[in-house]
Design brief:
Residues 270-390, 732-848 form the ABC3 transporter permease C-terminal domain. It is found in: Cell membrane. The chain crosses the membrane at residues 265-291, 314-338, 358-380, 410-431, 437-459, 493-516, 724-753, 778-798, 818-838. InterPro entries: ABC3_permease_C, MacB_PCD, Macrolide_Exporter_MacB. The chain has 27 helices and 24 strands. The protein is of the alpha+beta class. The relative contact order is 0.11. Strands 15, 16, 17, 18, 19, 20, 21, 22, 23 and 24 form a 10-stranded mixed sheet that branches. Strands 4, 5, 6, 7, 8, 9, 10 and 11 form an 8-stranded mixed sheet that branches. Strands 3-13-1-14 form a 4-stranded antiparallel sheet.
């Protein structure tokens, strides 16, 4: 049996190749994501471990952030002397490091990275652990001098002697580049600017005598943990955090972990789609191979092979296929990881491919996925093969499902589908977002399973409709292609299922994204009354000088400032909520249309008052007149009276949790020195919007991080953000289509082999090669469109249910992207044509006499 199995595997290796490709793609994404993330993690672990001080003293963070928006946490410089007197301290240094600064050249073009990595301004202090070294020029020696890292200098064509402008929280200042610093370790992709310590304190932090941290070097023989304990006792831990080098490296790695997790989960998402779609392909392939080997299996049974041996033989072939696919997939995954590393290099994160990490988890996961998926997918065909009696097999009775009733599928599919439909109905009628989302997830899974199970039941009625015009358009060729697709509903259903999964995903997400876009458009039209909105590109606060310059711009009528600060509110039901609350200028009604359930803007912004979302208030027993204890950063506390309850669509439009906001004067009283995050600007009487926009853009030209947007720009910004998610879905769809095409090609190729004698007879009675190719292409098209129709129908149902969940968050508009849906159906027909090219060509080249004589 082992020899027979190996010979059979080698005999059918061409037919199994396409199935191996599905396994290869699944394994490649799993292996590639693990290798890439392991390599980045190891690289940055070494970077953080080698550059962190023995002990670092930092300001403690409590209430989310103990600072007003845009400010930088600092420690008092006097703490350095207390630390230096601690036993075991060899050296101390005040560090200044500020992220989120903007650096522009003489043409007001940003010299920072465009990949989302920060621009960081630091004080210049070189130790053996510094990640950079001075390679040209000299160190900064006073105000107006700075260094820049070599990578940024090369990318942005910055040279020694150039003048740059640094825009920081206290304001902007000019510096001359007097030197270039080169990374001695991995460049994480950030742009670095270095100043001398007095300039860094004054220009980045707003005053002398403060720093962002204190770096401490331990004496020989003193461990980091011991020194940390001594320093903690000396300075206390109420105001400061004391971390060892390992703890610093761990916290830095944790921040990086979020970025890595995004990449890892995206790639594992691709792997999941590849696995799911590959299962259909492998099931179909083995079902057809077993159908073609009916007589061979019957002879084995007649010669004494029992059911277990036949089943083991088929499963062994599947295992061999899994091993081959996993090995090739692992190699492809290494190549994929190499490509990602090179891509990160183009984006500024200079990883070394020579230091690629392949841990033991990677090959184990690769083979577990590859072999496991193939084994599971081949199990049902193997059981079916083992269940055939020798006499039935020898008499050429098909075992691939032709003619067998679909009663079991009908019952199981109906039950699972009913449960899925009930879950989706529950999702639509739910009033809580959490329960609605849970029911949605359950409904999606169950309806997908039900559609896959019941797919063969839908083949005959749906394909009769889809191919109904074939006889009229293509005559007997069209009729035969339609009947070929109807011949084996199980095979057609499994082939179409691969395409159906991807299209259901894209259909659902297209409806959801279109509905979100329409909802945001309506909300912006309804609530935004300002001519223009001035914001930072990354929505972070900006320096006060920008607010002042906008105020002074000719033609500006009203400027309403928006500022956020972290607060903790103790609600009447006893819950303590930490959230972000907004502060707004007095003329808020001039730039925003706010719907109130009770109260008005004047009451909300009055000193000592606040506003809250009405639904949130009801959930927490808050009423008009309720007094809410509020804790602001730095321990400042007060009590504010709820004077207005908002009833905005979306509920959370004017803050975070609870949509709490109050007057800007109230915020400035308890959180002085903050920065504005948004300016709402209206044109003065007699100034057109176009004229004001031109003037504002000219005013803000030196600040490339700040944008002027009107309603249309704001809508486009939202669309672009939603499109990022949609592009990911389209990429997943592309992968699903690639594997689905392989599935259709495989099915048609094996179908051609299965129908060799039939094709020979058709050719003998006059069917031309061109007609034969057309017949196979039409069969492929109707199968692909069948999968598209099922997938899009399922996706539309999912999309409507997703919109109902979003409606609980105020996104009430439902939009169906009909153009996308029609394009997908047309694209599916093209996919069918492409998939049929090789099988049709092979069929048309058959020798007629050899085909008729084929066993």
């Amino acid at each position: 049996m082992l020899k027979a199995t190996l010979r059979s595997f080698l005999a059918h290796k061409g037919r199994l190749l396409l199935s191996a490709l599905a396994v290869l793609l699944s394994v490649a994404f799993v292996a590639g994501s693990l290798i890439f993330s392991d390599t980045v993690t190891r690289t940055f672990d070494r970077l953080f471990a080698s550059t962190s001080a023995d002990v670092t003293v930092l300001p403690r963070e409590d209430l989310d952030s103990q600072l007003p928006s845009g400010a930088v946490q600092t420690v008092d410089a006097s703490i350095e002397d207390r630390i230096a007197r601690v036993d075991g301290v060899a050296d101390t240094h005040l560090d200044v490091s500020v992220e989120g600064v903007t650096v522009v050249d003489s043409e007001n073009e940003s010299v920072g990275p465009t990949t989302g990595a920060p621009t960081i301004a630091n004080d210049w202090y070189v130790t053996e652990r510094s990640p950079v070294e001075l390679t040209s020029g000299h160190e900064p020696r006073g105000p107006g001098e700075a260094l820049i890292d070599a990578d940024t200098a090369d990318n942005k064509d910055v040279r020694i002697g150039d003048t740059l402008t640094v825009i920081a929280q206290p304001g902007s200042f000019k510096v001359e580049i007097v030197g270039i610093a080169t990374f001695t370790t991995t460049n994480p992709g950030a742009a670095l600017v270095f100043l001398d310590i007095p300039t860094a304190q004054t220009e980045l932090l707003g005053k002398r005598g403060v720093a962002t941290s204190v770096a401490v070097t331990a004496e020989e023989g003193v461990s980091d943990a011991v020194l940390k304990e001594r320093i903690s006792r000396a300075i206390g831990t109420e105001t400061y955090e004391v971390e060892t080098a390992d703890e610093q490296a761990e916290s830095a790695a944790a921040e990086l972990g979020g970025f890595l997790d995004v990449i890892k989960y995206v790639m594992l998402g691709f792997a999941g789609i590849a696995v799911l779609v590959g299962v259909f392909l492998i099931v179909n392939t083995f079902s057809m191979l077993i159908a073609q080997r009916t007589r061979e299996l019957g002879l084995l049974r007649a010669l004494g092979a029992d059911r277990k041996q036949v089943r083991r033989s088929v499963l062994l072939e599947a295992t061999l296929l899994g091993l081959v696919g996993s090995t090739l997939g692992l190699a492809t995954g290494i190549g994929l990881a190499f490509g990602l590393i090179e891509l990160m290099g183009l984006l500024g994160m200079n990883l070394k491919s020579t230091e690629m990490v392949i841990g033991w988890v990677t090959p184990v996961s690769a083979y577990a996925v590859g072999v496991g998926v193939t084994f599971v997918a081949a199990y049902l065909p193997a059981r079916r093969a083992a269940g055939v009696s020798p006499m039935a097999a020898l008499s050429d009775a098909e075992i691939a499902g032709v003619g067998r009733p679909l009663r079991v599928r009908a019952v199981v599919g109906t039950v699972v589908g009913a449960l899925g439909a009930a879950a989706l109905v529950g999702c639509v009628t739910a009033t809580e977002t959490g329960s609605a989302a849970s029911l949605l997830g359950l409904g999606v899974v169950l309806t997908l399973i039900a559609t896959v199970i019941a797919g063969p039941l839908l083949v005959r009625p749906v394909i009769r409709v889809l191919g109904g015009a074939f006889p009229a358009l293509f005559g007997s060729i069209g009729r035969m292609s339609q009947r070929n697709a109807l011949r084996n509903p199980r095979r057609t259903g499994a082939t179409a299922a691969a395409l159906m999964v991807g299209l259901a995903l894209v259909g659902g997400m297209s409806v959801a994204s279109a509905s979100m876009t329409e909802s945001f458009d309506q909300q912006i039209d309804k609530t935004l009354g300002a001519d223009f909105v001035v914001q930072n590109n990354n929505f972070q606060p900006f320096p006060q000088e920008i607010t002042e310059k906008v105020d002074d711009t000719d033609g500006v009528g009203i400027v309403v400032r928006q500022r956020f600060a972290p607060i903790a509110a103790t609600l009447p039901d006893g819950e303590r909520v930490e959230t972000a609350a907004g502060g707004y200028g007095d003329q808020l009604d001039e730039v925003a249309n706010i719907t109130y359930a009770q109260g008005d803007t004047a009451a909300a912004l009055a000193p000592g008052n606040m506003a809250m979302d009405v639904d949130y208030a009801e959930d927490h027993d808050v009423r008009i007149g309720s007094v809410i204890p509020i804790e602001f950063p730095a321990g400042r506390q007060t009590e504010l009276r709820v004077a207005a309850l908002t009833d905005q669509e979306g509920g959370e439009g004017f803050g975070a949790q609870g949509a709490m906001y109050f007057g800007l004067k109230t915020l400035e009283q308890y959180v002085p020195g903050g920065q504005d995050s948004t300016l709402y600007v209206n044109a003065a009487s007699g100034t057109s919007a176009d004229t004001l926009r031109s003037r504002l853009e000219q005013t803000l030209d030196p600040y490339p991080q700040v944008q002027v947007r009107d309603q249309a720009d704001y809508k486009q910004l939202v669309r672009d953000q939603i499109a990022v998610l949609l592009y990911l879905v389209y990429a997943l769809l592309g992968l699903a289509i690639v594997i689905a095409v392989l599935g259709v090609v495989n099915t048609l190729a094996l179908s051609v082999v299965e129908r060799t004698r039939e094709i020979g007879l058709l050719r003998a009675i006059g069917l031309a090669r061109r007609q034969l190719r057309r017949m196979i292409r039409l069969e492929s098209v109707v199968i692909a469109v069948f999968g598209a129709v099922l997938g899009l129908a399922l996706g539309l149902v999912w999309g409507v249910c997703v919109q109902q969940v979003l409606a609980l968050q105020g996104m009430t508009a439902l939009a169906i992207p009909w153009v996308t849906i029609v394009a997908v159906v047309v694209g599916s027909a093209i996919v069918g044509i492409v998939a049929a090219l090789l099988p049709a060509l092979r069929a048309s080249r058959m020798n007629v006499l050899a085909a008729i004589a084929h066993e």
